[in-house]
Structure formats: C-alpha cells, structure tokens
Amino acid sequence: MSYQSEKPLERILFVEYAVGFGGSLRSLSELYKGLQDSGLTDNKVLLFQNSDSVNALYPKEHIINRKRRFNYLLKSRWLNFFNGLKIMRKVGAITYSFLDYLYSYLMSYKIYRVIKSYRINLLHLNNGYMYDGIRAAEWAKIPVVIHYRGFASESDFSRKINEKNTKIPENCLCIGISNAVTKSIQSVGIPKQQIATIYNPITQPSISEQARESIRNKYSVSDNELVYSIFGRITQWKGQLEFCQAITPILLANKTAKVLIVGDATDSADDSYLKSILSHIESNNLQQQIILTGFQSDVYSYYSASDVIVHNSLHPEPFGRVIIEGMICKKLVIAANEGGPSEIISHGKDGLLFEPRDSKSLQKALEKSINDTELRQKIGDEAYNTAQEYLTDAITRKVIQAYRSHLSLKVDDHVY
User: Fold this and answer.
1) Is residue 159 domain-shared with residue 269, that is, in the same domain?
2) Cross-referenced SUPFAM superfamilies, in alphabetical order (predicted)?
3) Which of 31, 176, 179, 356 is most buried by a 10 A CB count?
C-alpha cells in the first residue's frame, strides 16, 4: 500500500466477540493487517476468546484478552436447558436477558478501561450492534464503528443507550458487508448518512505447489477423482447436511467423485446436526466418499485440493467469505442466489448460482460441473479476476475513507 510515511493518526481498538472461529474473525484479521500496513493507524484488538488459532491472526503485542461469560453460545445452551414446558423456556429467556443486561455493564466498564489505558480514540465493533461496546464508547466520548457482518434486526435496539434514546450515537458509522446487509440496516431506521457498504477483504494467498497433492494424498484422493468441498462451521444454517443429501445420487453414480466437509461443530450448542450428517453418510455407505476433515487453519491448501467449492447456506448469507476465497484460488464456486453471494457471482461467468433451499436446483448445478473440465477451468479463471476487486489493499482504502468522511477523523486527503 503506497501511503506516505507519517506518524499514525488514529489509535483504534477492534472488539471481537466471537466464541468460535469463523469468517468474521478472518475478515477482521485481513482488515487489521491492511490498516497496520497503511501506517495511518495504531491498532489493538480485544478478544473475548483465548485460543491459539485466533491469537495467531494478530501480532502478539497487539492482543488484549478478556473473558465474556455471557455470549450467544451460552444463551443457546441456557435455553436448551429450559426446553421443556413453554412457560419454563419463557422464564429461562427472561432470566437470561436480565442477567445479561446486568453483566453488560461490567463488560462496558472493562472495554472503557482498555480505551483509557491505551488512549484509544476510535472503537470498532466487529460483530454488529453490541450494547456494552457502544456504551463504553459513549462513556469515553469517542466515535464508534458498528461493523455489521450479519443482518440488522429491530431487536438489536431493545435497550436504551443514551438519554436521547437514539438507536446509535451521533458520532457512529455502520458498515454493511454487502448491499443486502446495508439494506437491512436502513430498514431498522439508521440514517443513510451513517452507513457505508464495504465488502470483506481478502489477501492473495501463497499456496505451495505441493499443497494440492499433499491434501489429496492425506485423504486418499487420486488425481482422476473430482473433489467437491464445503467450508465453514458445521451448523444447520450452513447447510452441510442438505448439500450431502443433494449430492448423494451423484456420488452413488460416480465413484470417482468425493466430498470434503472442512470445519467442525465447536461453535454449536449441541452436536445433533453433526450426528445427522454422520448418520446420512453411514446409511448411504458413503464413508469413502464423504470425508469430514475437522477444523483446518490452512484452508487454502484445502481449496487447492478441491475442484468445486459449494456454498449452501439455508438462510441469506450476509457476504460469503468462502466464495471469494474459492474464487481467488481459481475454483468453480456454486452458491445460493440470494444475499451476498448473488452480489459477488455473475451466474455462468465467474460461478454458478442455484435457487435457495432447492435441492433439485443445487443438484442440477452439481451435475453441470461434474464432467465438464473446460467449464470448471473457464469459470475458475473468470472467478480469479473477480476476486481481485476484494483484495485487502483496495478494501482498506475504502475503510479509511469511511473513517475520514463519516467520523471526522484526521486521515489526510493526500494519502489517496
């Protein structure tokens, strides 16, 4: 990034609330690196999970680890515990909300102390609307960025954040990671002048020539076998089971086709969905053709080992990081035609789209790709060209521009 050398102008604290390893973490790490490389910001990242895989995304000296006991995973487990009588579940939900509300003040204080300790002058929340972060920014009288990596909902604003009872502070910017997400932010009444659409960034990966062969050998995949891969946390809305069901007839008719399910279920409140996938594999005798790899930190080696990438979210995907990761690896990507994926992929040119939640439409796209090597290569090449639009360098510039124009920050015009 060709910025002129100068003293960092902003001290930014990024707050990451995730309790699992997913696309929001990966996207934040790309943006974080881009901002650090710009030389215009001096950053810290506050993480509410302490794991080697997450900590490895950032320079050790930039990480601040804290605990946050109330999170969406605990909420799911709590409600499952009360999943008997309807009245008990309602009591459980009310009790959890009350305890979470009280706990949020403690979290606000923790974030506020970090802001003051490191003289932070911009708070960037990486997981949408979080009361404790917004409250801490209000206490510290600094601007706040709400990075919506999911769709906005009216329920986000059920608590009062200030005496004016506005939905967001005046000195606040909301970033939507797609036009679909931005539309949802507008629909809950956030002023247009406080919203910017900025897609997630990606870095050109460095993949060794041996990566494809190494991964395929690991899972006993020969050169003439076609590998369909689906990436992400194993959870119902990501649609791994439904993908397996759609591709099963193809696998039974083509013994040289295989599936890699790359991801684990550690971010799920229970393992019933994973068990359903395993049951489907066993009942169809597909143990040699559908392979669960578990969590993998070196995902690009798995993209390299694949021939077709499938993205099968059962609900609209806010963006779809897997899609641009597959595209930048010159792979044919098949995805549902809604949300972020429909903005990224031009059907038939740089990927294939199918009707959401329609197994026959998905099956048709899978069948189209299986015996057409030329199609896979042609679309893969076009996909690579499309992915260049999402490189970290370009996206970082857009974020800095948004900081400057929306939040009255001190980033000078001449860096552009």
Assistant:
1) no
2) UDP-Glycosyltransferase/glycogen phosphorylase (SSF53756)
3) 176
Nearest Cα neighbor of 75 from 17, 15, 146 is 17
Cα-only R_g, the chain: 22
φ, ψ of residue 43 in degrees (nearest 5): -110, 150
Tell me, yes or no, whether 151 and 232 share the same domain. no
Residues 211, 214, 216: CA angle, nearest 5 degrees: 105
Q: How many domains does the chain have?
A: 2
- pLDDT by residue for the chain (416 residues), tens digit each? 455 444 456 899 999 887 667 788 889 999 999 999 988 888 999 988 777 878 888 989 999 988 777 655 556 665 666 666 666 667 666 776 777 788 889 999 999 999 999 999 999 999 889 989 999 999 999 999 999 999 998 877 766 555 555 678 889 999 999 999 999 999 999 999 999 999 999 999 998 889 999 999 999 999 999 999 999 999 999 999 999 999 999 999 999 999 999 999 876 667 899 999 999 999 999 999 999 999 998 999 999 999 999 999 999 999 999 999 999 999 999 999 999 999 999 999 999 999 999 999 999 999 999 989 999 999 999 999 999 999 999 999 999 999 988 886 654 443 33
146 with 94, same domain: the answer is yes
Instruction: Examine residue 206 and state whether it is found in any structural domain, yes or no.
Output: no
In this structure, the answer to whether residues 288 and 272 fall within a common structural domain is yes
Rounded CA separation 384/380 (Å): 6
